[in-house]
Design a protein that fits this description.
By secondary structure, this protein is an alpha+beta fold. The chain has a domain of 206 residues: Clavaminate synthase-like (Double-stranded beta-helix, 4-Layer Sandwich). The protein is built from 5 helices and 22 strands. The strands form 4 sheets. It has a 10-stranded mixed beta sheet, covered by helices on one side. Strand 15 and strand 16 form a beta hairpin. The radius of gyration is 20 Å and the shape is globular. The N terminus and C terminus are likely disordered.
Length: 333
């Protein structure tokens, strides 16, 4: 097993120091914690950190560095309150307010409640003869916009009896594993990303499910083009950007050749070796970096209650551009 990483704040070193240790702890001005590998292709579990005691600046910096390094951080049974979730979330950047006010938690505008307690908030699909909700395939949040959010943090408030798992996928690792010829082939390519009103509108990795709920009404979004290869704005890592929910076609290759390339890239990215599937316990919190990880919700029976509270970390860098057909120049948004 890989050695656990111990992360400790060090005010004299901009609030951060790393050491690869097992069992050795060094007390400094910040609380120390360990990051241990998860049983999957991305992420680490944070242990040894009592979030109810508060988070000082040096510890916040160490947590932020761990997030950027590992892409996904799991805090098991540590989300004991909304206040704890909010304080932890603010370690990673400015929090975004959700545009749908009715989802905001009363008294906590930066938190939204993803709950089917008062009826489903996402489409219902028949999956293997069972009506399920929260069936959301692999995607990057807001990839149908110019500036996706930087990340998000989920807290399981009430778990369903069956299902309700969430998956995370390392798209930086997927890029690294491409052969050099493919990296060269896609280096300068862009793809169109569109808002989707349901699984049946996806063009790739389509799900064999039957929709049993009506379509909702949503605002129109402009067409957006994103590079097939993102460069992470903070780490500089290359990322394979193939959000399966939203990707439509390669710019200039709206044909079978372009579609074949996208199918090949998506099949590669969805390899289980890049995935971590989280089986929730109540009060678990999971944070992911939306700029280097896709995620997916695997659904649960519609008659079982699932309540998740979410914070969203605001994105500060335009990763794509508004697309105007026939004009490939950069368009500000």
């Amino acid at each position: 097993m890989a050695a656990a990483l111990t992360h400790m704040g060090d005010v004299s070193a901009l609030g951060l120091a790393y050491s690869d240790r097992t069992g050795t702890r060094m007390e400094r001005q910040a609380m120390s914690f360990e990051c241990k590998p998860l049983s999957g292709g991305i992420g680490q579990e944070v242990v040894g950190l009592d979030l109810e005691k508060g988070i000082d600046a040096a510890t916040a910096a160490a947590l932020n560095a761990a997030w950027l390094e590992h892409g996904v951080l799991v805090f098991r049974r540590a989300g004991t309150s909304s206040e704890v979730q909010l304080e932890l979330s603010r370690c990673f950047g400015e929090l975004d307010l959700h545009p749908i006010e009715k989802l905001r938690l009363p008294g906590y505008p930066e938190l939204i409640s993803l709950s089917n307690e008062n009826g489903p908030i996402s489409p219902i699909y028949e999956v293997n003869g069972i009506n399920q909700t929260q069936c959301i395939p692999w995607h990057v949040d807001l990839s149908f916009t110019v500036t996706p959010n930087a990340g998000a943090l989920l807290r399981m408030v009430r778990k369903p009896q069956d299902g309700g798992l969430t998956g995370f996928l390392d798209t930086a690792g997927a890029y690294d594993a491409l052969d050099d010829a493919t990296k060269d082939e896609i280096a300068e390519l862009e793809a169109i990303h569109l808002w989707r009103n349901g699984l049946e509108e996806m063009r790739f990795n389509k799900q064999n499910v039957k929709r049993v709920s009506p379509f909702g009404t949503f605002p129109e979004f402009p067409t957006v083009a994103h590079p097939l290869v993102w460069t992470h704005p903070e780490t500089g890592r290359k990322v394979l950007n193939v959000s399966t929910m939203n990707i439509d076609h390669i710019v200039g290759q709206k044909n079978e050749r372009g579609d074949a390339l996208l199918r090949r890239l998506i099949e590669h990215a969805l390899d289980p070796r890049f995935q971590y599937i989280h089986d929730w316990e109540e009060n678990d919190m999971v944070l992911w970096d939306n700029r280097r990880a896709m995620h997916a919700a695997f659904g649960h029976p519609v008659d079982q209650i699932r309540i998740v509270h979410r914070t969203t970390i605001k994105g500060g860098v335009a990763m794509g551009r508004i697309y105007e057909e026939g004009n490939l120049a950069e368009v500000s948004a």
